[in-house]
Amino acid sequence: MFLKGKTALITGSTSGIGLAYARSLAAEGANIMLNGFGDPSAIEAERSALETISSGGRALYSSADMTLPSAITALVQHCHAELGGPDILVANAGINHIAPVTSFPVEKWDQIIAINLTSPFLLMQACIPFMKQKNWGRVICTASAHSMVASPYKSAYVAAKHGLVGLVKTVALEMARDGITVNAISPGYVWTPLVENQIPDTMEVRGMTREQVVDELLVARHPTRELVKPEQVAALALFLCREEARQVTGSNYSMDGGWTAG
């Protein structure tokens, strides 16, 4: 349990990749600050389970809204007051919307940029001072294959993920002598609620059936013909927290079944 005594704040961690991150880090002894939305009883069950697998670590939950700067600041302060740290920040919360650029709702653009790009910036701004006090920290951002390539009808999401990788590289350089690494993980399609929720809009805008969307747009993007599993993404994040990854910073790791290789 090499993370015993450390605290991880993970946004968007009540399901999908975020919850996989939480389980993986807790299994190595980390305290966990969960964040996100969902059924309260299901979230409480997951929170309790995290404390069990961490063998003495604590797990708390916050429903802080990642579109509100004041809520983000309050989340970090609450985490610090109750659990210490944050020593590890995993900026994972993300949303998407499918529409042509000519009819893309401005309010959706603003919301996607706020959650996918501005919230990681604000989280880093609030968490890094605590990391600098200890001369140790790990910042991991969930980007996407769309941080390197584009797909039609996803203008806000693609723009946000490209920007996120630029942010990661910049902050990595700023923190290079402070014992703090800053990296991104760019999964391809992972079977999560975020991907599931895109299917109806994609069916409508492309005139496709559900089966066509899954087979021709999701699975087909991966030369391996397999979707990425949340646990695989979490395993890479866990490695980035290890001492062996101390010299890994400013990197954007692809985990997309070969999608962006061609």
Walkthrough of the structure:
The chain is an alpha/beta fold. The protein has one domain (7-188, 229-255): Rossmann fold, CATH 3.40.50.720. 47% of the residues lie in helices and 13% in strands. It contains eight helices and seven strands, in the order E-H-E-H-E-H-E-H-E-H-E-H-H-H-E. It has helices at 16-27, 40-53, 69-83, 106-134, 155-174, 193-206, 210-218, 230-240; strands at residues 7-10, 31-35, 59-62, 88-91, 137-142, 180-187, 252-255. The chain has a seven-stranded parallel beta sheet, sandwiched between helices. Helix 3 runs parallel beside helix 4. The longest helix is centred in the middle third of the chain and has 29 residues, at 106-134. The chain is globular and about 50 Å long. It starts with 6 loop residues before the first strand and ends in a 7-residue tail after the last strand. Keywords: NADP.
- Poorly predicted runs: none
Q: What order do the strands of the largest sheet run in, or round the barrel if closed?
A: 3-2-1-4-5-6-7
What do we call the CATH topology?
Answer: Rossmann fold
Q: What is the CATH superfamily label? A: NAD(P)-binding Rossmann-like Domain
Task: Tell me the count of domains.
Answer: 1
Structural class call reads alpha/beta
The SSE order reads: EHEHEHEHEHEHHHE
